[in-house]
Amino acid sequence: MFIVNVEGAIYKDNKWLIGKRSEKEDHAANTLSLIGGKVEQEGNTDTILETTLRREITDEVGISVKHPIYITSASFVTDTGIHVVNIVYLCEHQSGKAIAKDPNEIAAVYWMTTEEIIHGSTIPGYVKAYIKQADRLKQKVITKTEKSFET
């Protein structure tokens, strides 16, 4: 059995929102990560992943996002041996100021450039990989959008 987790690679003004996980977290305590959380049972729904993503982002950092686009999925085993399927979305910041709403989950938030993340010595490799993928997808989406306005 797996836990399903969703995370957002959230961008605004050419920066990505990165959260520092609380020291009280069971998995990856005190590490830098994307924002997200576990999928919960919600009955029948067509958009469970996107609904969870938006809820978790609002609950953890107080912002709204728009246009979630699937980037990738992976599996991992937590520090306590729980198997997780992780699904990552590219998200554009829509509104609100990002803050660490619950210090038991997120201790701090940072807006960082792609370069700062890729070259950051304290950022886990999987976060760097997700941001690289998100940045490539973001560039494709922006280029496609610009071309559609030209025609």
Task: Tag the structure with descriptive keywords.
Nucleoside Triphosphate Pyrophosphohydrolase, 151 residues, 38% strand, 7-stranded mixed β-sheet, alpha+beta
Question: What does it look like?
Answer:
Strands 1, 2, 3, 4, 5, 6 and 7 form a 7-stranded mixed β-sheet that branches. This protein has a single domain (3-150), classed as Alpha-Beta Complex (Nucleoside Triphosphate Pyrophosphohydrolase), CATH 3.90.79.10. It contains 3 helices and 7 strands. Strand 5 and strand 6 form a beta hairpin. The chain is α+β, with helices and mostly antiparallel strands and 151 residues long. The chain is globular. 26% of the residues are buried.
CATH class wording: Alpha Beta
Q: Main beta sheet: strand number and arrangement?
A: 7 strands, mixed
* Low-pLDDT ranges: none
Principal-axes shape call: globular
Average pLDDT metric = 92
How many beta strands in the DSSP annotation? 7
In angstroms, what is the radius of gyration? 15 Å
Helix amount:
25-40%
* Helix/strand/pairing category: alpha+beta
In the CATH scheme, what's the topology name? Nucleoside Triphosphate Pyrophosphohydrolase
State the assembly state of the protein chains.
single chain
Taken as a percent bin, the fraction of beta residues is 35-45%
CATH superfamily: Nucleoside Triphosphate Pyrophosphohydrolase
What's the tally of helices? 3
Distance between the termini: 49 Å
Write the layout of secondary structure elements.
Blueprint: E1 3-12, E2 15-21, E3 32-33, E4 35-38, H1 48-61, E5 64-77, E6 83-95, E7 106-112, H2 114-118, H3 125-150
Parallel strand pairs: 1-6
Antiparallel strand pairs: 1-2, 1-4, 2-3, 2-7, 5-6
